[in-house]
Amino acid sequence: MMEEEREELVVSKSSSSSVVVVVEKQGAKLELTVDEVVEEYVGSFGFSQLLHVFLVSLAWIFGSQNTLVTIFSDAQPSAWTCTATNAASCGGSHGGDASSVCGLVPGTWEWVGGNKSSTIVEWGLVCDRKFLAALPSSLFFLGSLVGSGFYGWMADAYLGRKRAILVSCLLTSITAFLTSLSPNIWLYSLLRFSNGFARSGIGICCLVLSTEAVGRKWRGQVGQYGFFFFTFGFLSLPLIAYPTRTCWRNIYQIISLPPLLYSLLILLPFVSESPRWLLVKGRSKEAMDVLKIYARLNGKKLPANLVLLEPSAKLAEGEKEMNLWGTKWAARRMVTVMTAGFGVGLVYYGVQLNVENLDFNLYYSVALNALMEIPAVFIGSVLLSFMNRRQLFSWSAYIAGVLCILCIVFSKGKANKSKGSWAQLSIEAVGFMAASTAFDVMYIYCVELFPTNVRNFAVSLLRQAIMLGASLGPVLVVLGRVSPALSFLVFGVISLFSGLLSIWLPETKNAPLYETLEQQEEEEKINCISKEAGLQLGK
Question: 82 pairs with which residues across the strands?
């Protein structure tokens, strides 16, 4: 009878050592962190996490569609044709491009493709009103800038990751549909701002929710999976836009439906909240329930006496919990990440917009642009499995910077109306893939640099910096129409500078995901002391 009441438990202190302890069932508690439970009992990346990551990452499709939909809805009309019986009424021409309609008598001409093919066509955003065509996109990125901070704070403090994604998807669906009903450019621009605010929670919360469910060695690859779905959303746009090319409102109505269906049919019933966030909020029983679900789907079972170690219990009585900006090392790290993110966002979106200058059909150009992302995501996923985060990010940024500068050699300038050479196009393509790799790795790096209680907020701040850089990308593209060499030079220098900033960031490959700033500060100090002691012994 006494033998039946005894069992062997493995209590791990690190990944490299374990001790077998014989304890009484009724008296002992096996206290482990979420990281230790996932690594030792649930499995680093089993079927349950694969399904979880897949279901969560589907939401990236909607973020991509709503971000890039203006490529088609706000497209510049290709040409116009004269409808008057006498060509003299159309300036002696039977047609021409958009720039030649200024001064024509209204009613004597019409756009090729109909009068509702894009917002520019329907509301006449040409000639003296052409500056208004940039307003919706600018406000969209401004909305994303504001929304990133809001969702990051709400996801960490109140909503959690799952409910933040739910709110973001529902608001994205509503604002996209309302955008299709816009009566004028002013309300359309306001709704694009609202749509940018709404969808900004999708990317940051999906990334965090995915990576917090897996073991440390899989975080890099899992973080990359979301970008595959982003690319899929990008690729889907030409397929949606081409059948709806006669009315721009239809594309908004179509892309408004998937986020709603996803929220009700997939997210709510099948996706679990992050056990790390639940534990930080003191909801240890719910966190344990989630881990039990993961273990069961992986064909495993958690020990009956397992208790999750709550990081909040480590705070001394009367001691205030640290915050990101109030903690010197975290604030310094955040500023470095945001500065690098600003540069990466500027280069990534700026180089991407150069595809508009290719002399190809718009639908083919967008598809080609999206396809360039696939090698970047695939290469990044493979390299993350064995390369250091800091090394991969910096080298990707360096390669993008060098290739952007190399493009100056092949710039033909404004005087030459021909498009860039095939050599320049090839260099730009490889440079964009390198910038895309740096962009993807930067998000994963940020997830690992900060603990659970501020992780969503930190990623949202990175997202804000990226969006701020993205808002300047179109300015450099316009500058490139005057001086291609200057725009390439700016892209190159900023990319090189962003890569250089990684020198001041610590390496995070195979490092644990900490739960609080207090825990991370204490553990990193211990690791630093251990390394210094090891170096001294080595001497």
Answer: 109
Point out which residues pair with 96 in neighbouring strands.
80
What is the average pLDDT score of the chain? 79
Q: Give the percent of the chain with pLDDT over 90.
A: 24
Cα 358 to Cα 39: distance, rounded to the nearest angstrom: 49
Whose tokens are 């940020």? That residue is: 446
Helix-helix angle 422-449:185-211, to 10 degrees? 60
Mean pLDDT of 202-212: 87
Residue type, 186: W
CA angle 523, 516, 268 (to 5 degrees): 135
| Total residue count of the chain as it appears in this document | 539
In tens, the pLDDT along 23-45 reads: 434 457 778 888 888 888 888 88
Q: C-alpha angle 144/147/151, rounded to 5°?
A: 135
Q: Shortest CA distance to 219 belongs to which of 227, 228, 210?
A: 210
CB 198 within 8 A of CB 260: no
Query: Are the C-beta atoms of 103 and 77 separated by less than 8 Å?
Result: no
Q: Is the pLDDT of residue 279 over 80?
A: yes
* Residue 307 near residue 29 (C-beta atoms within 8 A): yes
pLDDT score recorded for residue 235: 87
Q: What does the DSSP 8-state code read for residue 322?
A: P
In this predicted structure, the answer to whether residue 52 has a pLDDT above a threshold of 90 is yes
Q: What is the dihedral of CA 521, 524, 525, 529, to 10 degrees?
A: 180
